Structure formats: structure tokens, C-alpha cells
Amino acid sequence: MGSPSRELVERIGAASTSVFRDMIEMVCFVGDLSKVSWRVLRKPSQLRWKETLYYMDMCGSQAVPIVLMICFLMGVILGFQAAVQMRKFGTELYVADLVGFSILKELGPLMVAMIATGRAGSAFAAEIGTMKVNDEISALETMGFAPSRFLVIPKILAMVIVSPVLTVFGDVIGIAGGFVVGTTMLGLPLMAYYNRTVEVLYPMVFILGMVKSVVFALIIAVIGCLRGFQSECNAQGVGRATTSAVVTSIFLIVIADAVLTIIFSLMGY
Amino acid sequence: MSNESVVEVKNLTVGYGDIVVLKNISFSVASGEIFVILGGSGCGKSTLLKHMIGLYTPFRGDVLIFGESMVNSSEDEKRKLMRSFGVTYQGGALFGSLTVAENIALPLEEYTTKTPKEINEVVQQKLALVNLDGFGNYMPSELSGGMRKRAGLARAMALDPTLLFFDEPSAGLDPITSAELDRLILRLREELGTTIVIVSHELDSIFTVADRAILLDKETKGIAATGKPKDLRDGSPNLWVREFLTRSKLKRDVV
Ligand SMILES: Nc1ncnc2c1ncn2[C@@H]1O[C@H](COP(=O)(O)OP(=O)(O)OP(=O)(O)O)[C@@H](O)[C@H]1O
Ligand SMILES: [Mg+2]
């Protein structure tokens, strides 16, 4: 009952506590994970290589076609949009700058992260959630294993190894997309576009993109696994966990992207 | 068989969230004993078992396994303690990404220094024990429910633990397999002196294997009776206990 304004306050209060609780759980999960990771680091024989390779295949090699396709189109779209504007000023050659910087700094890592969220993050949550429903997590625990060593570390490791590689692919093919627009639609000479691209881009731009892609990979793997462990023990619960993994990952990736961009620009890049 | 207790449950109160499922439960299981936890559906048998094996933290009370507290030990001590016993779950709980043989081999790979060949031998032996010879290379999803359950049993026995917890091992098995399971349980105790705690509904099997049973009561959230199942059936002062153990028609009429 109560007045509408009171209800509003109550709702905001309830929502805040649940967000706050969620944040605490996230911090606990990461803390617990660091402990297990430290142990695996000191004793690498504890790492489950078979699982790690499986996830590298699943999140990496199998994602190559879609990454190539989306990043290429991204480059084409960027090049096209830039061309329309640049033409007005007769500065067509700057399309190379715009495409190069945008792809390396932003769109390469971001597109790869979005694809990985949809492919890998959701799969992680669904997999762990289903294992929970089937008592498999309990079985791991009562066999004396830390579930995160089996279920989380291989996924994180696979993502962190594979994401930068995918991003390199995405970067190259994205720039190629811009190149296609530049040389066909704008009629720029091949060598001029190529030289301009090589001239303006410097290694640090590429490295910043790689840093982003590693951070995004961590977010995707950790959130996917966390949501899986938080899943309720029924089919709907697993479905909700999967949705939540995707939504939370995208949200955190965008926040991380903003923060990293600000930090990098403060550092002068 | 000594009379020292392997499992000791002390004033245990368990539940979920705000709901108390069982209150002030105390009992102990002696070494080499086959101990059965009975009770109507939903009275908290699985809940009690999950607290005994350390998956959940109880509201109050303590569980001692081999004299060591499950509740008050650190994460690492608990893990170590958990390795000393085997558990099977109601649905088998095999790891879906591994074959049946890999499931059974997992604890051996992780906790022993056996060579792959020796591990394979143990795996084959455990599979034979539960009548699953030749199914080692199947994925769990390719097995029937009862087969999965038996494979789970084989995995629980991989390290030859001296203490086993079974949640409904024979539910869903055909009468012959179920009887074989009873024989297996008795043989484990005979040959290895294994202590076994079973949650079960199958009256036939209970009368065959159980040394002692407790009957949980949903109403009082406590233990309604303790003793040898035959004695309880024939001589318990509590009518409900006698009815429970004779599958009285009365109960069905009420439903
Ligand atoms: N994860 C859970 N969260 C909240 N309540 C639960 C949970 N699991 C079980 N319960 C409740 O605890 C009570 C006991 O459940 P439990 O699974 O222990 O019953 P059981 O005796 O094993 O039944 P069955 O013979 O059908 O397996 C039930 O009333 C159930 O609703
Ligand atoms: Mg149960």
C-alpha cells in the first residue's frame, strides 16, 4: 500500500541494496579467484590444460569467421561515413587516419568483445548454471576440488590468450575494409592510402587496443562464470543467468572502455 | 570394527534462508556401519546429507567426520577432509564434458601418482563393480538415468574411501540391479570395512542392508525413531513409524 512517493522510495531502496549486494558478491568472487589463480601460478601442473585448449578453440578459432566479417564491415562502414564528410573538405586522404585510429583504439577490441560476450560469456554462464542444476558443482566440491580451478581458470586463461589474437585479426581486416572504400569509392591511389595509414599510426595505438581487449576478455569470462554460479537451480534460472551475463558484461565493458580511454588520454595517447 | 564413531552429528539445525528444515538433530555412525536416513519426501533427507558432507553451513551445531569438524574448519582443511569420503548424488552428477571413464579417472589423476595404465586398470575394475563394463567411452548424456547413477557410484569409489554417502542409490533402478547394488554395498562393508551412510526410500533394500536407521519427521523437524529397521517396524511405540516401514494402505487412502 502506501503513497506512490513512498513506494518509489522503497523501490529505489530495494534496487540499490540488490545492486550493492551484487557488487559485494562480485568482489568476493574476484578475491576468491585471485587466491586460486595464485596457487595455479605457483604450481602450473594444477592447470587443466585440456579444458583450456577446448575453450581456446571454442572462443578463438571458431569465432574467427564472424570476427573477420563484422570487423571488415565495420571498416567499410567507417570508411564510407568518413568519406562522405571528408569529401566536402577535399581531405579524402584523412579517411585513412580516421579508420586506422578508430579501429585500433576502439572498434577492433570493442567488436571482438561484443562477439565474445554473445558467444562465450553466455555459454560460460549456461554451462556452469546447468552443472549447478545437475549437482556437478557439488560433486566437484565434495571431491575436494576448488570448482574455480576446473571451471573458471581455464575459461579466463583461454579468453585472455585468444581475445588479443582475435583483435589483431579484427584490426587488420577492419583497416582493409576502410582501404577498400578509400581506393574504390574515393578513387585514392593504393599506395597513397597505404602510406598514409602506416605514417600516422604508431605502435602505442595498437598496444592500447590490446590492453583493452585483455581487460574486456577478463570481464567477459569472470562475469559469465559468476552469473553461472549464481544461477538458480532450475531451467528458468539458467536462462536468466545467461541473459544477465550478457547484459552485465556489455555494461561493464562499456564502462571499462570509457575509463581506459580517459586514462590513456590523460597519459597523452 | 571398532565402536568409535566415524560420523558424528551434534545438535544440528539446518535450513535455507529463514526456513528451518530440521532442528537439533544428533546421531552418530560407527565405523563399518551401514546407516540409513529415512523419511517422507521433502522432509529434509537430502538437506541433512548435504550438510553432513560440508556443502552447506548449518544454522547451529556441528558435524564431525573422522573426529574433525566440518563446520569449524578452514576451506583447505575442509577440502582435505572431503577427499577422505565418497559421495553419490540423486542424479549421478557426472561431469558432462568427460566420458564415463574420464569421470572415474579424475580423482585418481588429481590425487594419486598412478600411471595412466594403472589408472585405466582401476577404472575398468570400478566399472565392472557396478556392471558397466564396456561403457567407459560413453558420454554421460548417452547413458540411462540408472546407468548414470551407477557410474556416479563407481566414481565415488575410485579412491577406495572408507566412508561413503549415497543419496537414493537405488531409486529408479530395476529390481535386479537394485538387489545387486545391495549386495555390492554389503560386500564393500565386508571386504573393506567401509562405513556407508544411505538416504533411501526402498524398503526392501533398507531391510536387507541397514544396521541402523533414523526416521526423520517433517512435523517435528526432528528424529522420530532410531534403531534397526526390523525392530522399528515390529516394535516401535509410534504408530506412524510402524506404518512408514510397512507401507501401510492406510497412508495411501489418506492421500
Ligand atoms: N535449495 C533450496 N532452497 C530452499 N529450500 C530448499 C532447497 N532445497 C530443498 N529445500 C526445501 O527443504 C525441504 C527438504 O528438501 P530435501 O531435498 O532435503 O527433501 P528430501 O527429504 O531429500 O526429499 P526427497 O525424498 O523427495 O528427495 C523441502 O521442503 C524443500 O522445499
Ligand atoms: Mg532428496
Write structural notes for this entry.
- Chain A has one domain.
- Chain A is built from ten helices and no strands.
- In chain A, α4 packs parallel to α9.
- Chain A is globular.
- The termini of chain A are far apart.
- The model of chain A has no long low-confidence stretch (mean pLDDT 93).
- With 255 residues, chain B is of the alpha/beta class.
- Chain B has two domains: 174 residues, P-loop containing nucleotide triphosphate hydrolases (Rossmann fold), CATH 3.40.50; 67 residues, no CATH class.
- Chain B is 40% helix and 25% strand.
- A six-stranded mixed sheet of chain B has the order 6-7-8-3-9-10, with helices on both faces.
- In chain B, α8 crosses α9.
- The N and C termini of chain B lie far apart (43 Å).
- The interface between A and B is medium-sized, with 16 and 23 residues.
- The site of magnesium ion has 3 residues of chain B, from α1.
- The site of adenosine-5'-triphosphate has 10 residues of chain B, from α1.
What is shown here, in short?
Chain A is an all-alpha fold and 269 residues long.
List keywords for this structure.
heterodimer; A: 269 residues; mainly alpha; 10 helices; 0% strand; B: 255 residues; Rossmann fold; 2 domains; 4-stranded antiparallel beta sheet; binds adenosine-5'-triphosphate; binds magnesium ion
